[in-house]
Design goal:
elongated; single chain; alpha/beta
Length: 410
Amino acid sequence: MTEAKLLPVAEAQKRIIDAMPILPIEQISVADGFGRTLAEPIVSRRDQPPTDVSAMDGYAVRAEDVATIPVELEIVGYAPAGHSFRGKIGPHEAVRIFTGAPIPAGANTIVLQENTEKFGERVRVTSGDAPLGKFVRSAGLDFSQGDPLLPAGRTLTARDIGLAAAMNVPWLKVRRKPRISILSTGDEIVMPGDPVEQDQIVSSNALSLAAIVKAIGGDPIDLGIAPDRENELTALAAGAIGSDILLTTGGASVGDHDLVKDALEDIGLKIDFWKIAMRPGKPLIFGNISGTFLIGLPGNPVSSTVCAIMFLAPAIRRMLGIEPVLPERLRAKIAHDLPENDEREDYMRGMLLRDKDGDLKVSAHKIQDSSMYATMARSDVLIVRPPYAPPCTRGVAVEFIQLAGSHFNI
């Protein structure tokens, strides 16, 4: 159905998020885990370290034997990393030990090698102190067997992969990647590198949206560019069968060429809503075609990206079981005056700054035209202006969504 009234952004987000299913589980190798989202927590299969080990190169000794220095000790063995001294250290004895090697039985501290002088099979401790437990890494210092160190819903970083490997975990249970089909529309757009006529523009939406999908954990499928003819649009849209979401760009505005809604209604599109109280991004469509969700984005590049941040990203995160679903809203002082806003929630591209005192501030770019993608590319934040917000003077705190340095670093 067509909404008689513009739908608020929060209500549009809720309808999309509530409609999204949690995706099924699949098993992958830990080597393939980077960027994947855990469906189950990862629990350690071992203690780390598995036994008391030396944190430094030196000598394993009894603390009581080196309480007073200088002192001479007999070297009774060697313990390089990966090998243990199988005997037991007695009074006035020492074992030459290296970082990572197990602490021999009877020893309880480490004397640094630079604090010693070796001659033959004896060592003189000349300086430093080695109280009980000095430079000894206790068993389980890092983590213990059974510790749930990586929770479900976590998208794995390079550090997480290293931790999982250290936990001796070879396989991971993760959510299947959402399959997002991307269909650009319009006679006026051509692919980068193709000949461009005077009345045409180079398509950027499909590529930027595919990158957004990848950044959030989805699997993009490029269906190409559909010209402004209903039969060709529906033919290309058929390629989205089996996808979780069909993402279209362009053809969603009111006018003679708003083909997406009309053409896809002919093949079974059930519309939940169309048009929202948002700038940029008013002509947003959400619906369902035979089990595949449709998110129809505006054709202007900035509008497309902002809507992807506000609606597509939360949809993908819900399917993957990631929290928080919605982009976090932060607050900072505005660096300049802002005029009053109209009935649409406004998302202004801007920069994150620090003043001379080190306090965070945000500054909106002077021109907010939705066709200017260079401004979008160099923005740190989206400054959020509520509907009917009164004029805002410099120094007043405003809400913003951080782009760079967040999980929406797109």
